[in-house]
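Open question from group meeting: does this chain pack into something compact, or does most of it stay loose? Before anyone orders reagents, we agreed to write out a predicted structure and look at it together. Recording both the input and the output here so the notebook holds the full record.
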Amino acid sequence: MEDKKVLKTVIRNGVTFDNYPVYVSEAYGDSYLMKHEELAEEIASCIPQAWRKAVRFDCNLIAEFQDENDEPSEEEQRILSELDSWMKHHN
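Structure tokens returned:
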């Protein structure tokens, strides 16, 4: 049995991620696996606590949520670096 990819809205550390890819296990019914949790956690940690409820990311527009590769891509590293720089500049 294969896991089925579905898109859900999830909240990680108070930040909403729409169209987040999760994999529902046909063997276990409603159980699901969330990939890219570290990326979501890293993005959420770059957002000031007071802004987190107002921030939404559409995972369909973020390539790193679409690929099956578990290795961080150059683009992922660039995005995280830019978010980190932006946060340092605005704190």
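Observations to bring back to the group:
The chain has a mean pLDDT of 81.
Residues 74-90 form the longest helix (17 residues).
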